[in-house]
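Thread: Newbie trying to understand structure tokens

Hi all, I'm a second-year student working on a class project, and my supervisor (Dr. K.) asked me to get a predicted structure for one chain before our next meeting. I've only ever worked with sequences, so writing a 3D structure as a token string is new to me. If someone could post the tokens and maybe explain what I'm looking at, I'd be very grateful. Here's the chain:
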Amino acid sequence: MKFEGTYVAMVTPFTKDGEIDEEGFRSNINYLIEKGVNGLVGAGTTGESATLNHEEHHKVIEILVDEVDGRVETVAGTGSNSTSEALSLTQHAYDAGADSALLITPYYNKPQPQGLINHYGSIAEKVDLPLIAYNVPSRTGLNMDVDTIVELAKIDGIDAVKEASGSVDKVSDIYKALSHEGLEDKFSILSGEDSLTLPLMAVGATGVISASANIDTRRMVLMVDSILNDDYARAMELHYEMVELIRVLFIESNPVPVKTAMNIMGLPSGPLRAPLAPLSEKNVEILKKALKDSELI
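---
Reply by user tm_fold:
Sure, no problem. This is what the structure looks like when written as tokens:
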């Protein structure tokens, strides 16, 4: 499966009582589709997957698939630091009708390269669903190397990597290595760093899985589409229009600023789940200014 365009890493809206806000989630899905996104990700890091129990995780994916109803691509976050748990979540995503699954590298236990290959390879072998490996060392303590990513690209069913190591050089090296193996058309690289999407796409990435696109959806879609159409002048304009807001949206741990921004904008979001805490008062004011400067409030 070829991954291309703007995918939104959706928040999971909660009610005041801390339950999943199904009506709000459905509303956000339609809002983002209307803004022109290519795909939606449920139960990822931005969706507070770490504090969803399995029943809630399943519910998020089922709502996503049902409400999207084939209009855009659906991506289920199904990663875990346990291979058996990741397999179970991915199997459920397949059964629910998701188009693909996003699996973070196993966190805390820091598997060796062969462990990573075995982890993803065994899931790809057992579940007929396109998989996106998610490399985000700031969250996991593990930075998947270029050689390992290329080995994953050789496995049927592993079709992309979300690269959030923060290195343009690394994405350049991945693309060069994929090209050397003739895999550049089979395996996609997706930006996992919103502020680096423009440079990452300039060296071979084909899109982004974006948290900030919950907030400034229109501009992110326009920028990514401009790059795909080789209009780098317009893409650069849009990058600079967004970049300060993007930085503010990561001023504290994701998704704290994003959910706060959505609440300010009147979009369904609700409270955070512990151990995440509300955005500091100082940063709320910084966020409000950035939203106002971006003409979003």
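A couple of things are worth pointing out once you decode it. The chain has one domain: 5-229. The first strand starts at residue 5 and ends at 9. Feel free to ask follow-ups in this thread.
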